[in-house]
Specification:
three-stranded mixed β-sheet, mainly alpha
Length: 332
């Protein structure tokens, strides 16, 4: 996800003019803040991942809320034996690697187009996955619709490729659910890409213990859960609304349609909230984003977007279809 800092000058509303180079030296990067947030996020994701790995190794229910004040974030369990934290390395490294790849897709294309942007900020949080993701801040106007399109789509493509590669390996590390294992406090809904990769595993390695099992009977390795999170993050970012990556892509393709598509997306999420209440939260967030960015122009209208970008744009709805889950979480 990218965050805009300053709007496009009003002089670009009617005709395209080359934007001037930013004056003065670029603002200093707060590397200490990036490092501090990264270290904090490594810790919070390792806390979550450690319990996942422990449960996986001992055939305990995959997701246990525990008796902590914050469900699924079992800090007291870690503090009772700090060496347990090392169990969280596979999940943490995998998840942060996918998120980093996504944000660097944005960042590198910002550098290519000479658009000032920060390095990724990771956001630690005592949540189910130990983080609220990562974000870069764009600190300068985006010069063309082609630049906006490339910057917007580069992140989802990079993150999606990283998550698919991770899933291919992680499914091989997964195992059948042990007989008699207790019910989990949380169940994941599987997007289409999980079904595709599971089918490929059954074709390539039919002798694998999980090849013939339905996904609901597979005990996912924590790295596979990290891949699932990466897919979910890709789907959220590709929602065609407001300042999300999908919204940037829609604006680059058809600026006049952006506002209507953004509100249609909100309506769809409100409808999907009947299946998963969490979509009400995301709909509310997009409503606020749509209101606060009502008059913001993301890029000049001219020059027009090159035809080659329209072909590449087809990857966005395909990735969204592959990664989106109507009911991503069950049991909470």
């Amino acid at each position: 996800m990218t965050e805009r800092h300053s709007p496009i000058p009003a002089s670009t509303l009617e005709y395209y003019h080359a934007l001037p180079e930013p004056e003065g030296p670029p603002p200093r990067e707060h590397y200490w803040l990036h490092a501090l947030l990264l270290l904090a996020t490594i810790f919070t994701t390792m806390v979550v991942g450690a319990r996942m790995e422990f449960n996986f190794l001992h055939n305990l229910p995959p997701f246990a809320a525990g008796n902590e004040y914050l469900p699924f974030f079992q800090l007291r369990w870690i503090l009772a034996q700090p060496s347990r934290l090392l169990l969280g390395i596979p999940f943490s490294a995998t998840l942060l690697g996918i998120l980093f790849t996504h944000e660097m897709g944005h960042y590198l294309f910002c550098r290519y187009y000479r658009v000032r942007a920060t390095l990724p900020f990771f956001i630690p949080a005592p949540t189910l996955i130990g983080t609220l993701g990562a974000v870069i801040r764009i600190k300068a106007p985006i010069p063309t619709r082609a630049a906006l399109f490339d910057i917007g789509i580069a992140g989802p493509i990079a993150g999606f490729v990283a998550a698919v590669g991770t899933l291919a390996v992680a499914l091989n590390l997964s195992k059948p659910l042990a007989p008699g294992i207790g019910p989990s406090d949380l169940q994941l809904g599987f997007p289409v890409i999980f079904q595709v990769m599971h089918h490929l595993l059954s074709v390539i390695s039919p002798e694998h213990p999980v090849a013939a099992l339905p996904l609901t009977r597979i005990y996912l390795h924590p790295t596979a859960v990290a891949a699932w999170v990466g897919m979910f993050a890709t789907a959220l970012n590709l929602l065609p609304s407001s300042q999300l990556d999908g919204g940037h892509i829609v604006y680059a393709l058809a600026p006049r349609a952006h506002r209507a598509v953004s509100w249609i997306t909100v309506i769809v999420l409100l409808y999907l909230g009947r299946s998963y209440p969490g979509w009400y939260f995301w709909a509310g967030l997009l409503i606020l984003m749509n209101i606060f960015t009502f008059r913001q122009q993301q890029a000049p209208n001219y020059p027009m977007l090159p035809p080659s970008r329209w072909i590449l744009a087809l990857t966005a709805p395909i990735m969204l279809w592959l990664t989106f889950t109507v009911a991503p979480f069950k049991g909470i």
